[in-house]
Amino acid sequence: MEIKITETTTPKIMPKESELGFGQYFTDHMLIVDYDVDKGWHNARIVPFGNISLHPASTVLHYGAEIFEGLKAYRTAEGDIQLFRPLENIKRMNTSAERMCLPLLDEGEAMNMLRTFVKLEEKWVPHSFGTSLYLRPYMFGNDETLGVHTVKRATFMIIASPSGSYYKEGINPVKIMIEKDDVRTVRGGTGYAKCGGNYAASTRAGERAGKKGYSQVLWLDGVERKYVEEVGAMNVMFKIDGEIVTPELTGSILPGITRKSCIEVLKKLGYKVSERLLSVDELMDAIKCGKLDEAFGCGTAAVVSPIGRLMYNDVEYVINDEKIGEVTQKLYDVLTGIQWGRVDDEFGWVEKI
Ligand code: PLP
Ligand code: COI
After folding, report:
1. Residue 143 to residues 27, 51, 62: CA-CA distances in angstroms?
2. Distance between CA atoms of 294 and 288, rounded to whole angstroms?
3. Beta 292-299 vs 303-312: how paired, if at all?
4. Ligand 1, atom 10: nearest CA belongs to which residue?
5. Is ligand 1 within 6 A of the CB of residue 103?
6. Is the pTM of this model over 0.85?
7. What is the pLDDT of residues 253-291, one digit of tens each?
8. How many CB atoms within 10 Å of residue 259?
9. What is the C-alpha separation between 194 and 302, in angstroms, rounded?
10. DSSP E strands, 260-330
């Protein structure tokens, strides 16, 4: 599919790299593609960044037909720009699309759109280590009628935001609260899909945690509220008695690309990794017996983020003296090293633009 490019006549200036934060600034352009059942995907275009217009009955506004992805473009010390496992994001977007009855993307065409867009926005990829251009592909149902059914029209877009650290703590340990009341999703629901509704439903618990001084919540499974699942914007891993344990993908957890990469790195480094059910009771026992050596989250925005304090049933537990553990640090070094081109990419994960 040809991509028509209309460049902005009023380019913006990049804010100071030290003040980027996460998702606050946007680049000069955005990519838009239309879909309808008769024509399929068509009219791919890159246009100046700006507001879009939607019919007041648009499906996304009423029934939440929306999915998204998150990945980053990194600048190496040599000035090259590279993506980390971008095809994994496209594949996951198609898994999400299938769940939400939205149209699938052609993988090759989606990759081409991503590359063309990043190439055009090249100057927006920041230079300092730890900063990147966060890319947000997303899709929404866009029928102009109120019936509830598989959409006949949809829109795919990519926007981009030069970003620094997701958490204000940076690589320093974050405080997480285990959520006992709200649940994020259930098996058979949409947990494995990256759809907007999962996040909308998560906000209340996140707010409550925030008021108590915690960065995010750790979700328990939606049926028994017994098993640890994941954190608001990252998967979780625990080092218990020498073994790395991460919740298995039961269908209600987002299959993180960082999670998958961490598992591969850990196995290569010789660690024993178990993907299995982990009950909150087992986790609490491990803390009380001094067997929980490290806890950390992993995700594109959050990278690898140590968990320094865990709150459960109104009791706060300090993990690893609130220090970054050895495994957490090693994973952070390997992953960020590959992403920013500082260490050899022995896995073949990066793609140069
Ligand atoms: N879990 C949730 C709920 C997320 O929002 C994210 C972020 O995308 C992740 C896990 C980590 O996924 P990934 O490593 O693919 O970014
Ligand atoms: C990501 O890590 O890309 C995410 O999507 C997390 C988030 C900001 C929802």
Report:
1. 28, 19, 10
2. 13
3. antiparallel
4. 234
5. no
6. yes
7. 999 999 999 999 999 999 999 999 999 999 999 999 999
8. 23
9. 16
10. 273-276, 292-299, 303-312, 315-318
